[in-house]
Amino acid sequence: MNRIKEVLEEKGIKQVWLANKLGKSFNTVNGYIQNRTQPSLVILYEIAEILGVEAKELLNDK
Fold this sequence. Notes:
Layout: H1 4-11, H2 15-22, H3 26-33, H4 41-51
Helix pairs in contact: 2-3
């Protein structure tokens, strides 16, 4: 499980914007945000860099 959705909401960023920055489809990013699929570690680190946070901030501690 990840916290991408919460971080996007905290920063006021839309899923479409993140999808464009990642070069991924909206459906792919929406899958990450809804926790239907999990991004690879490479993508997780790329998302963290784009959002300006540490990768560990995108992960639940449970």
